[in-house]
């Protein structure tokens, strides 16, 4: 029987990197200011 695992799995390297900051924030490794500065920086680089 085949299936997919439920959890913090990643479908590609891009998706894994894209979700890294969110995962670190919710686990308490990054604080509020660091999270939003990193999120803003990645958004600006994409534009």
Average pLDDT, rounded to a whole number, is 65
Straight-line N-to-C gap: 43 Å
Number of beta-strand segments: 0
Taking the sheet with the most strands, its summary is:
none
Percent range for β-strand residues: under 5%
The gyration radius over C-alpha positions equals 13 Å
* Helical percentage: 55-70%
How many separate domains?
1
Give the SSE string: HHH
How would you classify the helix and strand content by structural class?
mainly alpha
Indicate the overall shape.
elongated
Give start-end ranges of low-pLDDT stretches: none
Number of helices: 3
In short:
The chain is mainly α and about 45 residues long. It has 3 helices and no strands. The protein has one domain (about 15-45).
Description of the molecule:
- By secondary structure, the chain is mainly alpha-helical.
- The chain has one domain.
- The protein has three helices and no strands.
- Helix 2 runs antiparallel to helix 3.
- The longest helix is centred in the last third of the chain and has 15 residues.
- It starts with 12 loop residues before the first helix and ends with a helix.
